[in-house]
Amino acid sequence: MTEVRPTAGASASLWERDEEVAAVARAVDRLCADRSSAGGLLVFRGEAGLGKTALLAETRRIAEARGCTVWSARGGETLRSVPFNVVRQLLQPALVSMLPEEAREYLGDWYDIAGPALGIADPGDRQADPQGVCDGLVAAVRRLARREWPLVLLIDDAHWADQETLHWLAALAERLDEMSVLVVVTRRPGEVSGASARHLDTVAAAADGPVTTLSALTPEATAGLTRATLGEHADAAFCREVWAVTAGNPYETVELLAKVRDSELQPVEARAGELRELNRSARGGGLVARLEELGIDATRFAWAAAILGTGISIDLVAKLATLKPDEARRCAELLRTARILTAPDPTTGRTGEGDLEFVHPLIATDVYNSIPDALRTAMHGIAARIVTDEGHGAAAAARHLLEVHPDDDEELVEQLREAAREHLAVGAPDAARRCLERALKEPPRPETHPHVLYELAEATFLTAPARTISQLRAALGMPGLDGDKRVDAVFRLSQALLHNDQLEEAVRTVEAEAARLQPGPARMRLQAVHFMWEGLHAGEATSPDRSRRLADLASTCTGRDNSERALLILRGFDALMHGENAEEVAELCDRALVNGRLAPGLGWTDTEWGIELLLMLANAYAFTDRLDRAETLYNEALRAYEMAGWSGGHLALAHAYVGLGHRRRGRLKDAEASLRESLRLAERVGRRLPLYWTATCNLVDTLLARGHVDEAWEVAERYGFAPPYPSTIVLPDPRSVRGRLLLAVGRTKDGVNELEAAEKAAAARGHHNPMLVPWAADLARALATEDPARAARLAVDVRRQAERFGTDTAIGEALRCAAALETGQRAVRLAAQAVTYLESSPCQYEHAAARIEYGIAARSTADLARGLDLAVSCGADGLAERARAALEADAGPG
Fold first, then answer.
1. 227 and 202 co-located in one domain
2. What residue stretches are annotated with the Orc1-like AAA ATPase domain (predicted)?
3. Could you tell me if residue 176 is inside a domain?
């Protein structure tokens, strides 16, 4: 330490904090240097009382002296169950100060997504996606940072922040290089676990340099602080005892010295023995004794303030403590004089409804813990009623209801269910889960119990599929869920099983429930879901009569309701996978639409059927060369999820299939960009899930088409694109794509083995469409030298299946394969036929490849040049290089 004494005017708690203050000053200077400056993040860690709050106050002073806008917030030990509490403290005041239309214009598309979480907009009528809300809050900071530059955000006691705020803070920390804002965070070590701890670890990892751990004051600094407070005449022995009693804790030192001064204790060695007793009165039991000395009314007032925790207005405290207004004001003054409560410090920048706050979080904790258990529980119950009567809603009262002992209270169950609905609507499923789990302890009445379990499953569906499964099974095992609600619960259970990679169990669950229903819409819906999950299953075998049963059922459908439309889509997708006539596939899909559009109730954000069915529809169009219709559906999905703020798995899949659409068109650069974004989003949801495979498989396929073999291999290695494969179908077939990759990197034997495994799996499933499971053409090329007879048989099979399917792309690709196995004029004729078909196809990459292959076979510089132009426009660098090499070799006149 270069100095013992802090700078003039600084808090006493800043003694020996020169390095930390210097780091703050440097960060503020970097922020103020330029509007385009990258953001910064400082994290200070220290035990209670080591001066973290004082360091933030000094940060505010430095930043405001440089002309910065400074906003701050603080976590609270009793407020961790309140979702978005800390981020609301931080951002809400600036947005509330705007006119509503100004805030809406400023936040743009994010207003309806992040606004409810910030408390500036009413929530919608459906469950908000937590990741979308988090992204919206990050976007809000980005926009506010441009408006308020230079902007500094201070977050005190982050270890006590709610989980939703910590999720946002972790996301913000990783995006600070995109916005000009300085974030300074303080926290205690430990204190948290689970998701909150992971979020704080992410914040620490993103900090500018290592996290700074604050240390206690040295004896020298304690002596300097003692003499600065009590006078230079304080003798050395007395100063040493101050340090020994407080262990150099700055907060305890300041509090002890204040008591020494108030008691007029002389700072001499003879009186040093009295310091320990004085120190005990500042914390724990000593604080309780001080409260008792102030009288029962003041004690009740302090207890009520600790129960409320935030928004400590004298009127609200008076209601909770059952005090008259005059008595409440007198108690508030007594507690201010006793340094227990204080008026909010305007320099903190925090605004709220409260007239008071605790002098220090340590005091708030000690007061709260001093309340007798039974009384504390009762006061929380009263506080819940007061908060509700004040019009703050069930969600605001929920944190108090969570503390009330179970008492078979149906009204409390309904309040908690309403609070859970409010939490889900703003994107806080964990808060909703806590409310519903508490409601189950009440417990609910028998007729209500399965409905609470169902709602709990809704709250955990996005974050904990395994937990959702047990909750829905329990709900379905009770009487009370009937009709459409029961069908919804069975569908949700099957979805959770699917997302938990238990697809076979999902199929059995739906099949069993459908069997117990009478013929009608509900049974037909479950039959459709049953076929849907079977159709997505990528297991080693399938029921040989499944397609016939599905075809028979779909043949009775006219598309008059969504169950019939679903069956038509499923029949179309099944026909696609089996390589039946593409015209018939498209006709089935067309019948599932209403005037060429998705029917009401079958939209991308409707939950009755889920995303899987609509992706089957879009993919059926994509692989039957109806790319206009497929891309319309893919882009509709992307827009719908972005507008709804769904930033999790749904958005990841939308980007993946937009990428697939680009890949089919031959827009390979656009495909790569979309697929990389999909993979980024999929990483946040979790590896090894079906959506993760979809993004990875299509990215590898696209990079191979571009000729970027090394990049394709690097992606495959980094993201685990290797066996074992998922239980759900991925398009295109991952075994076929990995086999192609292995061939491309020179691992021919491994590639052949992988393609043969793809052959076996496809045969077991009856999947004979060479466009979706393209193993045969690559295997034929790989075996052309080693086993030409088998290669020729494979090429014949590919052509037969392609002609059965009937699209220009499928037939053209089959002809390309056949041409690659021939020489001389036969190779030229086959290559020319491939060009003819692929010229009529919407798939420009395949057209470019065929044109170049024909140009080489026929020694046609004109076709090579045209193929080169097509390859360049597609972003197919490998094809383009092949065409250039052939042209440079002067293959001959065209």
1. no
2. 16-184
3. yes
